[in-house]
Amino acid sequence: MRVNHSAHPTAQRRPPAWRPPGWRRPPPPEPRSRFHRSRTLRRLGRIDRWAFDGVAAAHLPGLEYVLPRLSRFADHGVLWFTSAGVMGLSGGARLRRAALRGSLAIAVASPAVNLLGKQAFRRKRPVVDLVPPIRIRWKLPTSHAFPSGHSASAAAFATGVAMEAPRSVAVPAAATAAAVAFSRVYTGAHYPGDVLAGVGIGMLAALGTRTVWPAHPPAARVTPAEDTVTGRDLGELVADDGRGVVAVVNRAAGGGDAPVGMAGGILPSRADFAVEILERELPAAEIVTFTAGDDADKVFGEAAGRASVLAVVGGDGTVNAAARAALDHDVPLLVVPGGTFDHFSRALGMASATEAISAYRDGRLGRVDVAYLTPAGGRRGQDEEHIFLNTAGFGAYTELLERRARLERRIGKWPALAVAAVRTLRHSEPVDLFVDGRERRVWLAFVGNCLYGARGTTPNWRERLDDGWLDIRTVSTGRRVPRVRAVAAVLAGHLHITPGYRAWKATALELASPAGGLRIARDGELTSLPAKLRFGKHAGALTVFCPAEALR
Question: Which part of the chain is the DAGKc domain (predicted)?
Fold first, then answer.
C-alpha cells in the first residue's frame, strides 16, 4: 500500500509567504499586442469621429443639393453601369475595354464589401445629429457601415477605367468617384474611415483584374526616327494644311462593304468619316479613292511616288498594301483608322482619324519592324516577299476567313464572322506540315510581327513594335482534334489550355507542306503561296507617324 506522504498530517509543510494586509493576487497581465491594438483602434476611432464631425459641420455652398443626389444616383452601381454603357456605345476600342474592366472590378469589389467586410466588422452607422437635414433627403441605410460599398464601387470603376481609357476620360471618372466617396461622409452615411477602407478595396479589386485580363498599354513602343527622313527635315514633311500628303482611301473599309439592307450599306462607313476629317483638317492633301476592283498595289505605288507623306485610310489589309509602297519609295506612312478592326493603328495608339492627324502635325516619327514570308530557297528580292505588320495565320484560321468572305455579302461582316467561326471549329481538320524541319499535324497557327501580350486565338496588343521577334503559336493535334475543349479554349480566349498548344519566339521560321501549296492569311487577307516558306523580319524598316505615348 502506497502512502501519500505529502498528504499525511505529520508531513512538513512550507510556511506561507508573508503578504501585507489587504493584498490580492493581481489579474493575469493582458497581452501586450492586444493592449496596443485596442489602444490604437480607440485612437483611430476618435480621429474618425472627429473628422466626421468636422465634415458634418462644414458649410459648402451648392454642394448640399449636388452631393446627396450624386450619392443617391450611385445606389446599386446605377451611375457606374450607366457610364459603362455610354462608353461602350462610343465606338472606341479603348473605351469599350475601360467600360468592361470597370464593370468587372465592381463585380469583384461589391461582394467583397457587402458580403464579407460588413458582416465581419458590423460597425454601426454614424449619429447624424450634426448633419443638416437638407443633406439627408432619403432614408439612411440600415446596413453595417464598415467598409463603404459606394466608395468601393466608385474606386473600382474609376481605377479600371484609368487602366484602359485615355486621360480625357480617366480624369473625369476619377473626379466623379472622389465626389461620390466624399458624399457618403457629407450626407452622414459613413465615417471617413469607412470610405477610405472602401476605396482601398475597390482599387485592389480593379488591379486584381489584371491577373486574368492583362491591361493593354495605350500604345506600343517604337524606335524614334532620326531628325531627317529620306534626306529631308521633318519641317519639309509636315505642313499644317497637309501639303505633300497623298491619302489613299479604301471606301469599302469599315462597313462600306455591307450588303444592301444592312446598316453598313446605308450609313457612312468609318472610312467616309475619316475622309471628311481629312478634308477639313488637311485641305491641301491629295485624296485618292480606290474600290474593290482596283489594283491596290498599283494605286499605292503611284501615290507614294509623288508623296512626301503617304497616308492610308482603311483596314489592316489596306494598310499592308500601303506599307509595301512606303517601303518601296522610302516615304513615311500615316495610318488613319478606317477599317473594322484596325489592329495596327490601335497598336500605334491611334484609334481615330483625329488622333492620326494630331500625330502628323506633331511630327513624331518612329520606326517599326516589318515581318515577311518568302518562298524558301528562292531569291530574297522584294518581289518575292510578302510582308505583314500584324499576323500571318494558317490552318483553321484561313478556313475561317474563306467562310466569312462567302457569307459577309449576304449577312454582313460581323454575323458572317460568328457563323464562320462556329462552322470552322466544328469541321476543320489539321494539316500535315514540317515546322522548322519537324513533322506536325497543325490545326491552328499564327505568326505575329513582334511579341503579343494576350494568350488567346487572336492576340490584339503588343508592348513593342520594334523588338525584332516573331511570335509563333501553334496547336498540333493527333488524328482527331479535341473539339469540345478546343472550342471552349477559343471562346474563353485561353488557347494555351488546348492540348498540343506551343508558343515560342524566333527570328525566322520555315514551313513546308507535303501536300503542295499553302494558304496564308496576312493581316486578314488570303494569299496562295508555294509549299515551302520562310518567315523573317526587317527590323525598324518602316517609318510611321505615331503619338507621343509610343515614343516614351
Answer: 294-377
In this structure, how many other beta carbons lie within 10 angstroms of the beta carbon of residue 272?
17
- Greater pLDDT, 212 or 448: 448
**CA distances for 480 relative to 166, 398, 477, angstroms:** 46, 19, 7
For 239-362, the fitting CATH number among 3.30.10.20, 2.60.40.420, 3.40.50.10330, 3.40.50.10700 is 3.40.50.10330
Query: CB within 8 A of 208, min separation 6: which ones?
Result: 105, 108
SS3 343: helix
Which residues pair with residue 445 across a beta bridge? 394, 474
Cα separation, 385 vs 380, in Å, equals 7
The predicted pLDDT at position 42 comes to: 73
Longest CA–CA separation in the chain, Å: 125
Helix, coil or strand: residue 485:
helix
Burial of residue 417 (CB within 10 Å: 0-12, 13-18, 19+) is middle
Q: Where are the domains of the chain?
A: 47-211, 239-362, 388-539
> Cβ(254)–Cβ(293) under 8 Å?
no
Spelled out in words, what is the top-level CATH class assigned to the domain 388-539? mainly beta
Nearest Cα to 154, choosing from 195, 98, 119, 115? Answer: 195
Given a cut of 60, whether residue 490 has pLDDT beyond it is no
Q: What pLDDT digit, counting tens, does each position of 125-173 carry?
A: 776 666 666 667 566 667 777 888 888 999 999 999 998 888 888 899 9
Cell 496588343 -> residue = 461
Average pLDDT taken over every residue of the chain: 78
Question: Which set of grid coordinates corresponds to residue 13?
Answer: 509543510
Detail the DSSP E strand segments found in 251-377. Answer: 286-290, 309-314, 333-337, 365-375
pTM equals: 0.71
Round to whole Å and give the CA distance between 194 and 445.
Answer: 51
Angle between helix axes 93-111 and 78-88 (nearest 10 degrees) is 160
Residue 119 is predicted with a pLDDT of 80
Which residue type occupies 195?
V
What are the distances in angstroms from CA 171 to CA 89, 163, 165, 178, 550? Answer: 20, 11, 10, 11, 21
- Strand 431-435 vs strand 509-512: parallel, antiparallel, or unpaired? antiparallel
In the numeric block, the cell 521633318 is attached to 234
Overall CATH class of domain 47-211: mainly alpha
How many other β-carbons are positioned within 10 Å of the β-carbon of residue 134?
Answer: 9
